[in-house]
Amino acid sequence: MAVPDTVTGRYLGGSHVKFSHRSTLVQVGAALVLGGAAVGVAVYWSSPDHPDPCKPATQEAANLTGSNLCKALRKADLPTVLGIPKAKTEFGGAMAQPGANGAEPSVHVLYTAGPYEVIVATHRPGSVKETEKVAGHSATLVTGTAGGRQLYNLVVSYDAAGSGFYSVDVLKTDGTTMTQDDSARLERAVAEKVLPTLPEWK
Hints:
It is a single chain. By secondary structure, the chain is α+β, with helices and mostly antiparallel strands. Helices cover about 20% and strands about 25% of the residues. The protein contains four helices and seven strands. The protein has helices spanning about 20-30, 60-75, 80, 180-195; strands at about 90-95, 105-115, 115-125, 130-135, 135-145, 150-155, 165-170. A seven-stranded antiparallel sheet has the order 1-2-3-7-6-5-4. It holds the Pfam family DUF6215. Keywords: Membrane, Transmembrane, Transmembrane helix. This is Secreted protein.
């Protein structure tokens, strides 16, 4: 996988984001940075009581990206996608990873669904070395460790031009390690449901 050298950005801002899973977001962000890419300091905003966590604070690109991710995950019926149709879904948080050299924001949004945490993020620019196809786009499963946790991140290209890629992560809320097969199966299911609804999808 070709990963951009730096990741930069801001996110929803103000009072529109709640954080109950900061460490998970940081761990996943760190695990995605392989091959010498740099990660900046994560930026957070929190508000546990905001009625609409998906509402962007401004019309800036990073805010709109985060809002789109939040809405797509909210509408995806994650319990059904994950095979737990009676589970409760809840917004879990969002983060950005500031970088350098004018790279676009890397924006991560997390939802919980029953025993799972689901994180979808955008990264640009960047490309994916294809080992499989997901919804017709180049994809591969990246293995990493962070905080003593083994993580399997499914990354999927926006397009063939190297405009950017998505990362999709499904983890257990209790911190137990999932098998590679289970991670890949659930992440593919989420990717096929959520990614084609995002504006960057070509």
